[in-house]
Write a structure and sequence with these properties.
Layout (H helix, E strand, L loop, with lengths): L1 E2 L3 E8 L9 E8 L13 H5 L14 E8 L5 E12 L2 H6 L2 H12 L14 E10 L4 H17 L5 H9 L2 E2 L6 E4 L7 E4 L12 H9 L1 H12 L3 E6 L2 H14 L8 E3 L16 E6 L12 E5 L4 E3 L13 H13 L20 H19 L7 E5 L5 E4 L1 H8 L5 H8 L1 H10 L3 E2 L3 H8 L1 H6 L4 H19 L31 H17 L10 E2 L21 H15 L3 H20 L19 H13 L6 E3 L1 H15 L10 H9 L2 E6 L2 E4 L13 H20 L23 H11 L5 H30 L19 H5 L29 H20 L3 H29 L21 E10 L20 E8 L2 E8 L9 E6 L3 E7 L12 E6 L3 E7 L5 H15 L8 H4 L16 H20 L37 H4 L7 H11 L2 H9 L4 H5 L7 E4 L15 E4 L4 H8 L9 E5 L6 E5 L7 H6 L10 H18 L45 H5 L27 E6 L14 E6 L4 H15 L10 H11 L1 H20 L3 E5 L6 H13 L6 H14 L4 H4 ...
Length: about 1900
């Protein structure tokens, strides 16, 4: 029995002592006045009565009621029911009130309150509260009781208030048991109280249902998960009772867990600072204080009134594990909305009555009860009973539970199990003998039903309703109870004037009533609560929540049998059979892999793959247990090695938790298996398996200790006959009749009260001694596995691979098994605190002592025994160290294991070894190919070998550790200069020696060296390797690179070779010019500094401030020094003569832009001239010496123009179209006072002409001069510029769109294609598929003469005047930092450091998409095609982006490549790179981080991105490029390799300053090492056609327009391919010779010799092993010439001669299909079919001849028809959709427009559409042009013109005259021409 109410309190308003506006609560009376002994009076009640503060009110408010909860120091909850009403303020109180209350009253009056609610003017009302304090939660009874007291007072009932309160305080009710009690307070009332059946089940009434109605399913689930994972939760509402109900409902959902943190459903405003507490809480606050909760950063706020839950960004709420999350959500929606399942039915069934709110409340709770039963199913199998007497001590094996449930990675359950609520759950419900409730029955007996009902919603709902009935019955045992009878006040009684305030009660009367009741209770017998205790059922063994497939290592009987056979062979001494068995194991796993079981999750040696499976590892431990007799098994050395290897393989996948119990099963074995090293010295297996993370985890040792203690405690109470092998935690007992430890504990707890005192004391002592003995045993075990074998090295436990680095964790391999392999470096992150490196024993002692303190304190070991343990532990450790010293000494005498001989790599001429081979192991990374991945093949990695560091490369050479692979040499190398990231990793590997720390090196040539150093490589050697590598990667200046050092004897201590005199003279001359200019112009502009390359002396150190005598190159020079003069100094003449030889001038002459001589003579007829104004590099150091500028611009004006642009890179011409004569200009970005200021303020009056205005004026003149030099320059009055376009036609990205990398939507974010819009085609025709522009014939006639493509950020807000002759194109460009970030992600996607979490192509494609690399390629191609369109239509373009040396260079280079076929030749491409990239100052050294000064900036792949764009164009137009794809890969590799000097330094100025630009001219070059990449290419091209593209058959003057959408782009195989046989194939001298000798050179054998060769993916070079047909023919030709004794002819001469022969044969024989492989390249122009052809495979060149049909249509011979039929079969997928409208078709030569040649086209006469269409070739699907027959006037015979086919007679020509022009045609012969004329005329007559 318990008191219904402990205290009754009357609290009233009182003035604040400090005189503030608010008052404070004062306790007027409390009953009883003395505290109960068992329940003291709670403090702070006056705060909780009015949570918003005690304030006066100008009106009478109705009474309010709510229940607050207070928690005392003992975590006992006190329920404070508060009924508040208002009374008029007494004069004394009113005088004490401040002006604040008056102001509030005025505000309320202004608000329009009803006069009935207002008292007389100036009357205020004060709150008064009746409080009932109880430890019981009966809110409705409290409401009725306080309401009755208030009613007696207000209505003036003839009842004594003292008697009512006295009866209330003396009322007692039972706690539980489902009893029913009727109480009366003596005022004619009657109330019925029902107690719940079980006190463990919470009482919720309707609070859960209300919570779901207020917040919804998703929000309540979020709060549920947040509460269980110990987050802070704050409820907001305007209702106090709603706050209390919400908190109450949330706690009810947590059952069977109990919330143990701060719980305040209603928090007073004076205590709001509690919200800043660091501990979790559930708190409710009135919504009026919401503003004060805005600054809480880690609090989840639930607004009950608004129905929202706000989760801060810094808070992560882990969701429920799937599929429980989705299942729970589904069931909740069904419970809350039963009609949801019937809403879509055509004939819904009759409506069933919905559940009441109370029943719905229980149904919702039932759903969560089922959820907990599913989550915690089988938890009792993971309980460890540590002590039974005097009180049970229970511990939970968390790792075993998570492992067997398959939820080890689940964040939610992990946090729940680690929380305080679950700890209380274990201590409360883990007791084996106690009363049980609904949850115990559910988790023990209903799990199978719940699993069976998972996919049947109706059965799940039925189960929920059954559970809800039980929950409802628990709260309402008697549903049909009598109605309550409680008097209530009349309506609006609070508005009536009460004659007097609430009276002061007589304390004596109330106390007398309480004393009388106490006396009666003392005389009555005490009520004994009968508890029905029983053994808690354990339920079925646990199962995984979601059954997951084990992949490759399924639990197959065959694999387990292989494991058993292997163990048997080892212990029977059959070592050879054991090795075979291990090979069979590897073959078995390989077969499983081939059958499609999926790739191995971690890359292990093939011989131990079978032990990856959990079942196989358990089988191994069981088999090894069978060979242990009397706790000892002595093995020989070979057996010991085998066993230790297998143990290491078992342990390598164990996490620190050991969730599958493998380490627990091996722990007794590692102290049992041993070998004799010498008489008296024995080495145990534990000394060779220490390097696993599980041994350094305290939680593992605690779980093991508790498990063993449970085993011994159980054996203590079992009879000897019953003492079976104990079952491990989480496993099914071996025999059903054998009682478990919990069963034994339950029985002992049942018998405990019946035992005598002596017997009880005896059992307690036995249990305590058992725990103590196990503590000693585990102190020894821990010292075995924590102390290293070689303690003299002071190396100990450290943070293993897997605790800090996810990449190394995923690749941690098997540890060594040999003696001495456990020594490892130690740091303080291992779990040892403050450990000195020399105090190995002290660190182990501290670790063991912490363990002993924890487990012994929890297990109830006496303090004396614990002190004794602390004394024993140091002795145990010291004794073990002495034993290990002898073991270590003897183990070093074992014969060393033979290691493979190191393979020395081949070196280049001039390449020297800096560090000789360091023995390492090359580990597998995230690429599957090297480990027999998706493409199959052998397991090449891991490989054992050595790493070499040379002056040029980092090289690994070795052999695979898998003996199944064979004697294959593995080579992986990359240039030192390509290193982008170096990272230390921690690795464990499978080999026979222990490996120290590893190193991971990543290169921008897409190579990854992930290696671990052998034990013979000391830490000093490894550190020396890193330092030397860093020194070579970042030399102090560029003269320390391999390109300078190769071929010379250059020691690090000696300064490099001084540059030639030419450089210093130029530098001195430039400095003198600058000084003269400085004196002339004064000091006013010296502060304007721009980028100046640092001098060579400064390159190794941070840049310093420029000295005062130096001036930036951007400053203005004297006009006199810039004017060309005929009296040049000798150095100037030498410079000019050298400059004329540069690539720029050669290209200027080819383009007809003039020469230096013609420019000096100032020929006015030429629009542009070559200006030597920058010959001294005084205006712009990053520009070439000779520049193309408008003829009308004087040299002295260029300096002022240059100041308007970044880095002084003013606009210069770099290319001119031969057809349209439009020019392409490039420059740096604009300064703020450049063209922007010119356009913004061109009409603004200026008081004086400043220097900046002068520059802008000069720039305007300069641009006007460029426009004037245009041949198509027209009057602007009739021109329709792009600015007249309506923005409605330009997409959603503004007028010009954006090319900033915009993520995944970048490919389609442009809307209408930019090039199409600029060409004026967006209204004329839609773009073609794949992002190609529409047909180029639809160009607008009127265009701007010059388009300026600039950065949108600089041109923002600019409105060009339509009268201007140029137009701005503002675009957004991606920055270099974005390119860097994208490239880093691309590197990790193509060369991942560790296997992906989700193996397969999806993960790779996702990473590739996240890199946004292809999106940037798309943007570059898109803008380049835009510029090509503008140039092709006759408008000039100025590209003015960033500083003018990155994206500008990319765009102008691509534009020239697409527009000019010359640049698609090898010579032209070289000239393009030399001109645009080298001469125009792309910063190769800076972007490549070539020196120490560039280390911080990192590598930026600007040039690589350009080459990737060229590769994309090459793929789409393979017949337009003379060079091959290998040529692009070669340049991509060597532009970062620093092997050649070509791509060093940042400008021609720096190359001259160092004396590099002209040092290789003339006869000074001997047979020395190639220093220029072009010279190397030229030499190599004479020997081999590797750089040549056999499909090269260009079409004259064709402008390429590639597809640019991301869907049309391909990932370059340069990023992904690898050849482990020889390393990167781009150093041709290092490539291997022919793959196999000729057949006649092979040794004779009786068996026939096969020429077949196995080509392994990732190992062999497929093009080298299987060359294409033409290369094979050329090689065969050279071999035959050598056999005949002739000097072999160069391949190029042979190729050119064969092509010429084929061309002649094609002209003489027009009627047959050319049979040669070379016919198509000789006869055919570019074919769109070439898009589908690739170089390399043998069949590719064969397919070139398939469309070599040059003759006409229907009159062809049968052989040609057969050839055509075969072609149509092969290329049926390319047939046009208009084939049904082809009336007549064939080949005709057509004369192009003015000055264009004759070309063969495939013509189609279409009678249906009345058209004559023509295509590039027969299988082309895209029509290239249409002649409308309606416009044809006549068809007449024609005459040959210039360039016509010469082998055709004159009668084969005919003309078609239309209203627009005359078309000239030529057939193959006269009959064909006549037939075409007849057909066309027939169509005309039919019309």
């Amino acid at each position: 029995m318990a008191r219904l109410a402990d205290y009754f309190v009357l609290v009233a308003f009182g003035p604040h002592p400090r005189g503030s506006g608010e008052g404070q609560g004062q306790i007027l009376q409390r009953f009883p006045e003395k505290d109960w002994e068992d329940n003291p009076f709670p403090q702070g009640i006056e705060l909780f009565c009015q949570p918003s503060g005690w304030q006066l009110c100008p009106k009478r408010s109705p009474p309010t009621f709510f229940v607050a909860v207070l928690t005392d120091i003992n975590s006992e909850r006190h329920y404070c029911a508060c009924l508040t009403f208002w009374e008029p303020v007494e004069p004394t109180q009113e005088a004490a009130c401040t002006e604040d209350a008056v102001e509030r009253e005025e505000a309320l009056e202004e608000g329009g309150l009803s006069p009935t609610a207002l008292a007389p003017a100036g009357q205020l009302f004060a709150p008064k509260t009746l409080v009932l304090v109880s430890r019981l939660d009966h809110a409705e009874v409290f409401r009725n009781s306080l309401g009755l007291i208030y009613t007696v007072h207000v209505e003036g009932l003839n009842v004594s208030l003292e008697s009512v309160i006295g009866n209330l305080l003396t009322c007692t009710i039972p706690l539980t048991g489902g009893s029913q009690r009727t109480i009366s307070l003596g005022a004619g009332d009657r109330q019925v109280i029902q107690t719940p059946l079980t006190d463990s089940l919470p009482v919720s009434c309707c609070s859960v249902a209300l919570l779901f109605r207020q917040l919804g399913i998703t929000n309540v689930l979020s709060l549920f998960c947040a509460t269980l994972t110990e987050h802070k939760i704050l409820f907001l509402s305007r209702s106090y009772q709603r706050l209390a109900d919400a908190c109450r409902g949330l706690l009810a959902l947590l059952f069977p867990l109990r919330y143990s943190f701060t719980y305040v459903p209603i928090l007073p405003s004076q205590l709001l600072e509690v919200l800043s507490t660091p501990t979790p809480f559930i708190i409710g606050v009135h919504a009026a204080f919401q503003a004060e909760t805005q600054e809480l950063l880690d609090v989840i706020v639930a607004d009950l009134d608004g129905g929202t839950v706000t989760v801060p960004e810094c808070v992560h709420i882990p969701p429920l594990p799937e599929p429980l999350q989705s299942q729970t959500h589904s069931v909740l929606s069904t419970v809350l909305d039963p009609e949801l399942e019937l809403a879509d039915l055509a004939f819904p069934p009759p409506m069933t009555p919905t559940s009441s709110l109370k029943m719905q409340d229980k149904e919702l709770r039932a759903v969560f009860l089922r959820l907990f039963a599913q989550l915690l199913q089988g938890y009792r199998w993971c309980l460890h009973i540590v002590r039974i007497h005097p009180e049970p001590v229970i511990r939970f094996h968390k790792a075993a539970f998570l492992g067997q449930r398959g939820l080890l990675e689940d964040d939610f359950l992990m946090k729940v199990l680690e929380g305080m609520a679950f700890a209380g759950f274990v201590s409360e419900r883990g007791v084996p003998y106690r009363p049980t409730d609904l949850f115990d029955e559910l988790v023990a007996h209903e799990v199978a039903r719940m699993r069976a009902d998972e996919n049947q919603p109706q059965r799940v709902l039925r189960h929920v309703k059954e559970l809800a009935e039980q929950l409802y019955k628990n709260e309402n045992p008697y549903p049909a109870v009598a109605m309550h009878k409680v008097q209530r006040p009349a309506e609006a009684s609070h508005l009536r004037r009460v004659p007097r305030p609430f009276p002061r009660l007589d304390e004596g009367t109330v106390q007398w009533i309480v004393d009388q009741a106490m006396a009666k209770m003392q005389g009555a017998p005490p009520a004994v609560r009968a508890e029905r205790r029983t053994t808690v059922p354990a339920g079925p063994p646990m199962t995984a929540i979601l059954e997951r497939s084990s992949g490759l290592h399924a639990n197959s009987a065959r694999r387990l049998e292989v494991v058993r056979n292997c163990i048997s062979c080892v212990f029977e001494g059959k070592m050879l059979e054991a090795k075979k068995t291990r090979l069979a194991m590897s073959q078995l796993s390989l077969c499983a892999f081939i059958l499609g079981s999926g790739p191995c999750p971690q890359l292990l040696p093939a011989v131990l793959r079978a032990l990856k499976g959990r079942a196989a590892r358990r089988c191994l431990t069981q088999e090894l247990h069978l060979h242990v007799q009397q706790n000892r098994a002595v093995l020989d050395h070979q057996q010991f090695d085998f066993v230790v290897r297998m143990m290491n393989c078992c342990l390598q996948d164990c996490t620190s938790m050991d969730e599958h119990g493998i380490a627990a099963a091996l722990l007794p074995l590692v102290t049992a298996f041993c070998r004799k090293l010498s008489p008296g010295v024995t080495q145990f297996a534990y000394s060779c398996v220490q390097e696993h993370v599980v041994w350094s985890t305290p939680q593992f040792w605690e779980a093991m200790f508790y498990g063993d203690v449970q085993t011994h405690i159980r054996a203590l109470y079992l009879e000897p006959s019953e003492d079976q092998a104990p079952s491990q935690a989480g496993e099914t007992p071996a025999h059903e009749e054998s009682p478990s430890a919990l069963d034994v504990a339950s029985e002992q707890r049942r018998l405990w009260p019946t035992l005598s005192r002596a017997k009880q004391q005896e059992l307690v002592q036995k249990e305590e001694s058992t725990v103590f003995s196990q503590a000693i045993h585990y102190a020894s075990r821990m010292s075995y596995l924590l102390l290293p074998l070689d303690s003299s090295k002071s190396r100990l436990l450290r943070e293993r691979a897997g605790l800090g680095d996810p990449e190394s964790a995923a690749n941690s391999l098997v540890t060594s098994s040999m003696a001495g392999s456990v020594a490892e470096s130690y740091d303080t992150e291992s779990g040892f605190e403050d450990a000195e490196t020399s105090d190995v024993a002290g660190a182990v002692v501290r670790f063991i002592n912490r363990f002993v303190d924890k487990v012994c304190t929890e297990s109830g070991v006496t303090s004396d025994h614990l002190k004794g343990l602390h004394v024993m532990v140091p002795d145990i450790v010291q004794m073990h160290i002495e034993t290990l010293e002898a073991v270590h000494r003897e183990s070093r005498r074992l014969p060393p294991i033979q290691k493979p001989k190191l393979l020395r790599p081949h070196l280049l001429p001039g390449e020297e070894c800096v560090l000789d081979g360091l023995r390492v192991y090359l580990l597998p990374d995230g690429r599957e190919e090297g480990t027999g991945g998706g493409a199959g093949g052998p397991t090449l990695l891991p490989a054992e070998g050595a790493v070499f560091l040379t002056t040029y490369r980092v090289i690994f050479t070795g052999m695979p550790t898998d003996p199944l692979v064979g004697e294959q040499v593995v080579v992986r190398a990359f240039p030192v200069a390509a290193l982008t990231k170096e990272k230390r990793i921690s690795v464990q590997t499978h080999v026979d020696q222990f490996l120290q720390d590893g190193l991971q090196l990543r290169a921008c040539t897409f190579q990854l060296l992930k290696m671990a150093f052998d034990e013979e490589v000391g830490s000093e050697s490894a550190e020396l390797f890193r330092k030397q590598l860093h020194r070579l990667r970042y030399p102090p200046d560029v003269r320390g690179t391999f390109a300078f050092a190769s071929g010379t004897i250059h020691t690090p201590g000696r300064p490099g070779r001084a540059p030639k005199d030419k450089g210093p003279s130029l530098r001195a001359l430039s400095r003198n010019l600058v000084k003269n200019a400085k004196k002339t112009i004064g000091r006013q502009h010296i502060t304007r500094r721009k980028y100046t390359p640092p001098s060579w002396e400064q390159r190794g150190q941070p840049p310093a401030e420029d000295p005062e005598d130096e001036i930036s190159v951007s400053e203005e020079l004297e006009p006199s020094t810039l004017t060309p003069s005929t009296a040049l100094k000798p150095a100037d003449r030498l410079t000019l003569s050298s400059l004329v030889e540069r690539a720029c001038c050669r290209d200027y002459q080819r383009l007809g832009l003039g020469t230096l001589g013609s420019s000096l003579s100032r020929a006015k007829s030429e629009p542009f001239r070559v200006s030597p104004v920058n010959r001294m590099y005084a205006i712009c150091r990053s520009y070439p010496g000779l520049l193309i500028v408008p003829q009308s611009i004087q040299d002295n004006a260029l300096q002022r123009v240059s100041r308007c642009y970044r880095q002084n890179r003013f606009p210069v011409v770099c290319w001119r179209s031969g057809r349209s004569k439009a020019v392409l200009l490039r420059s740096g970005g604009l300064h703020g006072k450049g063209v922007v200021g010119l356009f913004k303020a061109q009409n603004a009056p200026s008081p004086g002409q400043s220097q900046t205005d002068s520059s802008s004026l000069e720039q305007e003149k300069y641009l006007q001069a460029v426009v004037s030099a245009m041949p198509r320059y027209a009057d602007a009055s009739g021109r329709n510029t792009l600015s007249s376009f309506s923005s409605a036609h330009l997409g959603s990205h503004g007028k010009w769109g954006s090319i900033r990398a915009s993520g995944r939507s970048g490919a389609s974010s442009m809307g209408v294609d930019v090039g199409s819009r600029l060409a004026g085609r967006d209204m004329l025709g839609a773009p073609q598929p794949n992002g190609a522009p529409p047909d180029p014939g639809f160009l607008r006639p009127h265009r701007a003469a010059l388009y300026i493509i600039g950065d949108k950020a600089q041109l923002k807000g600019v409105r060009p005047d339509p009268l201007q002759q140029w137009e701005l194109v503002p675009i957004e460009v991606f920055e270099v930092r974005q390119v860097k970030a994208s490239f880093k992600k691309l590197l990790k996607a193509c060369v991942p450091g560790c296997p992906a979490a989700e193996p397969g192509p999806a993960s790779y494609l996702r990473s590739l998409e996240d890199s946004e690399w292809l999106s940037q390629i798309h943007k570059l191609l898109q803008v380049s095609v835009l510029v090509v369109e503008l140039l092709d239509s006759g408008s000039s373009v100025l590209v003015s982006l960033e500083d003018g040396w990155d994206i500008t260079t990319q765009v102008v280079s691509l534009v020239q490549l697409l527009s000019d076929p010359f640049y698609r030749t090898m010579e032209g491409f070289r000239l393009l790179v030399e001109k645009e990239w080298l001469s125009f100052g792309h910063r190769f050294s800076h972007r490549g981080a070539h020196t120490l000064a560039g280390q911080s900036s990192g590598f930026a792949p600007i040039f690589l991105q350009f080459l990737d764009c060229v590769h994309q164009v090459h793929l789409q137009f393979p017949m337009e490029f003379e060079f091959s794809q290998f040529y692009l890969k070669f340049l991509s590799y060597h532009h970062v390799s620093r092997r050649f000097r070509t791509f060093l330094l940042d400008s021609d100025y720096e190359r001259i300053e160092l004396g590099l630009l002209y040092e290789e001219k003339g006869d000074r070059r001997g047979q020395q090492v190639c220093r220029s990449v072009w010279e190397y290419v030229e030499r190599l091209s004479k020997k081999t056609p590797v750089f040549y593209n056999y499909m090269y058959a260009p079409e004259d003057a064709e402008v390429l327009r590639p597809y640019s959408n991301v869907s049309n782009l391909k990932v370059w195989d340069f990023y992904t391919e690898e050849t482990l046989a020889e390393g990167p194939p781009y150093d041709w001298e290092l490539a291997r010779g022919p793959p196999e000798p000729p057949e006649e050179e092979r040794p004779d054998s009786s068996a026939p010799q096969s020429r077949r060769r196995v080509v392994w993916p990732c190992y062999d070079s497929r093009p080298r092993a299987q060359p294409d047909a033409i290369s094979r023919l050329l090689e065969e030709l050279q071999r035959l010439e050598t056999e005949l004794g002739r000097p072999p002819e160069r391949w190029k001469d042979t190729w050119d001669r064969v092509k010429a022969t084929q061309r002649l044969e094609g002209r003489t024989d027009r009627h047959g299909t050319p049979s040669s492989l070379l016919a198509s390249s000789a006869l055919h122009p570019r074919r769109s079919l070439g898009i589908y052809l690739r170089e390399g495979p043998v069949g590719s060149t064969l397919s070139l001849s398939l469309d070599s049909d040059q003759s006409g249509g229907s009159s062809a011979s049968s052989s040609r028809q057969a050839a055509r039929r075969s072609t149509s079969t092969l290329y049926s997928q390319f047939q046009t959709a208009e084939s049904e409208n082809r009336s007549y078709e064939g080949t005709l030569y057509k004369k192009g427009a003015f000055m264009k040649p004759w070309k063969a086209r495939w013509f189609v006469l279409d009678k249906t559409k009345h058209q004559l269409r023509y295509y590039d070739h027969r299988v082309d699907t895209e029509c290239k042009g249409v002649i409308d027959l309606a416009e044809v006037e006549s068809v007449t015979p024609g005459t040959p013109t210039m360039g016509a086919p010469k082998t055709v007679g004159e009668k084969a020509f005919f003309d078609v005259k239309t209203t627009r022009r005359v078309y000239n045609f030529c057939a193959q012969d006269a009959p064909s021409a006549q037939q075409w004329v007849d057909r066309i005329q027939g169509c005309l007559s039919d019309a």
